Amino acid sequence: MDFKTVELPMFFVAGIAVRTINQEGRADKDIGSLWQRFTQENLADKLEDKEGNELYCVYTDYESDHTDYYTAILGCKVSSIEYLPEGFTGKAIAHGKYNVYTPEGKFPANIAATWQHIWATAEGRIYTADFDVYDVAGKSFEDIESKVYVAVD
Fold first, then answer.
1. What is the strand order of the sheet 11-20 is part of?
2. Which pTM does this prediction carry?
3. Rounded-to-integer distance, Cα 20 and Cα 39, Å
4. Which of 22, 48, 75, 99 is deepest in the core (most CB within 10 A)?
5. pLDDT of 76-99, one tens digit each?
6. Contact at 8 Å (CB) between 7 and 97?
7. CB 27: neighbour CB atoms within 10 A?
8. Apex CA 30: angle with CA 86 and CA 83, to 5°?
9. Phi, psi at residue 36, to the nearest 5°?
């Protein structure tokens, strides 16, 4: 699976969060629940300072690496995380280098396959904050387009 490396400026994401782990299907269940709640409750509409219409799923606050606990935040890119609606979490995504993967196939299986590949092959990961960006506008669930960004040194 090919990737390109880009340098990104610091930015903010705000959304709802869960602490999870990639074992025994727990992350799939936990992150799936975030998606369900975020979309059913139209939580993006509560973010007054969002930038763009994409959804972000950020993986951060790793205890060690992808085999241990981390926090997943599903939300939107915003101009500030100073004042957030009740129940929302904000995170500054650090300026830095990211390997960018473009999943192929139907969502969400394509995201899972991309992450399986990254866990098996990615070197140089720094486990600060990795994230997926989803273009959901006007698309059916299976046709959601995405990119996966992995922080590297």
1. 3-8, 96-101, 145-152, 129-135, 55-60, 70-78, 11-20, 89-93
2. 0.95
3. 20
4. 75
5. 999 999 999 999 999 999 999 999
6. yes
7. 20
8. 20
9. -60, -50
* 15 and 56 Cβ atoms separated by less than 8 Å: yes
Q: Which amino acid is at 11?
A: F
Give the pair of three-digit tokens for residue 10.
Answer: 């610091």
Give the Cα separation of 17 and 103 in Å (integer): 23
Cα distance between residue 105 and residue 102, in whole Å? 10
Q: What is the pLDDT of residues 103-140, one digit of tens each?
A: 999 988 999 999 999 999 978 999 999 999 999 888 88
pLDDT tens column, 41-75: 999 999 999 999 999 999 999 999 999 999 999 99
